[in-house]
Design goal:
The structure is a homodimer.
Chain A: H1 47-53, E1 55-59, E2 64-66, E3 74-80, E4 83-88, E5 94-100, E6 105-106, E7 117-120, E8 124-130, H2 131-140, H3 142-168, H4 171-182, E9 209-212, H5 217-224, H6 228-240, E10 244-246, E11 251-254, H7 257-264
Helix pairs in contact in A: 2-3, 4-7, 5-6
Chain A binds a DNA duplex through helix 6.
Domain HTH crp-type (chains A, B): 169-258
Organism (chains A, B): Nguyenibacter vanlangensis
Biased composition (Low complexity) (chains A, B): 200-210
Amino acid sequence: MPDPTPCQREAPPRRAVLSGLHRQPGYCLTCGVRAHSVCSAIDDQDIARLAEMAVETTVLPGRTFIEEGAPATDFFNVTAGNVKLFKALPDGRRQITGFAGTGHFLGLAVSDRYAFGAEAMDTVRLCRFSRVRMRQMMDDFPRLERRLLAEASNELVAAQSQMLLLGRKTARERVASFLLDRVGDAPCPGQDRSRGQGQGQSQGLNQGQDVPLPMTRADIADYLGLTIETVSRTLSWMRTERMIAIGKGHAVRVTAMDRLEILAGGEA
Amino acid sequence: MPDPTPCQREAPPRRAVLSGLHRQPGYCLTCGVRAHSVCSAIDDQDIARLAEMAVETTVLPGRTFIEEGAPATDFFNVTAGNVKLFKALPDGRRQITGFAGTGHFLGLAVSDRYAFGAEAMDTVRLCRFSRVRMRQMMDDFPRLERRLLAEASNELVAAQSQMLLLGRKTARERVASFLLDRVGDAPCPGQDRSRGQGQGQSQGLNQGQDVPLPMTRADIADYLGLTIETVSRTLSWMRTERMIAIGKGHAVRVTAMDRLEILAGGEA
DNA sequence: CGGCCAGTTGATACTAGTCAACGGACGTGG
DNA sequence: CCACGTCCGTTGACTAGTATCAACTGGCCG
């Protein structure tokens, strides 16, 4: 297993939510995240240009580093930690539109303002790129644009599934879908997305699949369009039905994948 | 006003849902839709290549021409008519993820299967491109890819708004948001998206803004995650509140934009 | 004319939201 | 050390917003 925290170089003295220093030219060459991210679209020989425009940024847990509606000046690439993306209504209701982990690219938008907010769920490390410079890179490297298009297409597909979930699924179906979407995610986020069905993650003599839930009930609720009470009740119900086992500290073990899959109602 | 049905050439003898003949090399040069679509990313001098790989296709109202889960062999560009895009559950519940009008590009996906279905709402004319050939075009013309990325980014933003709507808005808020999204759409779809604020929202002496609704109540319901009854009741309620006037044959006039906007709850 | 479909409206049911109480984990400070 | 407060999660009682079921209308077309 490679370096679990691939992005640690500089000292961490910063004040505002967003600050930081530019990377060294050779930075990206050794970045463990590159392989999983859009940066892989740039060859070794050109990657120094990318490195030099990347600003190292650290965001503390709970801090909002993209404000919905603020001028969209930067793109971001998550190099460590997890981020929640959301939209909100004036009265405070909010919808989490997605979770972004290591390797995820943020900030795609044609508009000059961010259409969503982003908040760090844990300590997050980011590469920050100005949009202007990023556009130059895209001009010079069409492969980068292709990679972004692929990323956007995947997100679009995910968004469509989420619309089906939010518009048409019941609370039980939503929670089941949510758990299944996360089966196979490594407990250590960002690594090992191989999703090998083989011996899977720690099945052993088969106790079921572990599902890491690095988010609170409130986050799950805001993601599924439910309340925390409903999420809690639904998980409790699944436990009494012996479909899952609820462990300490944000961990759930799926013990009846088959019934969960039926519940989730695979798409037609 | 230019040719309202810019894509009429060949005779219409066809049997299957999808068939058709390849375009003539000069076709795209005169296509009135080109300016509004991804095709504008290709210069006049190169557009013949695109024309030659485009297959003219007509789809009758109500026909599904993209089947969810089917092998994704083609991209489409809508040249006339309106399309609804949707995902469905095995038991028939369905969520319309979007409406696509003239100029809209369909089929973006990395997967080898369509993630959504598409059905003609009226008589639809399409340019159909094989994915393989389209990929060649993208290789040769990075501008095309850039244009597609912009298109995808916009759809992503729209999808996020829709998630907020589906997850967190009440029925009244959903219907209000839906109507407002369509204010300014020309009654004749595909033309005049200028959204000229010129004469204001035509208030003033003013009868209000016309909102064309070329879809049934069932479609609206499936788009908003509601039932047809709730949509009907909500529109009726808005009428009694004098926020809208309901005309014959799928037309609604917004008579109190301001109250509708408050209802829709502008995003934070 | 009769059948069908889209839409409206009413009565009732039910899912999930709201309000509230409680327990455990954790951190702080006496 | 323990008392205290806070945050997160669970559970219960009740409510409200939509869904469901059903009846009815008007338009369209064979």
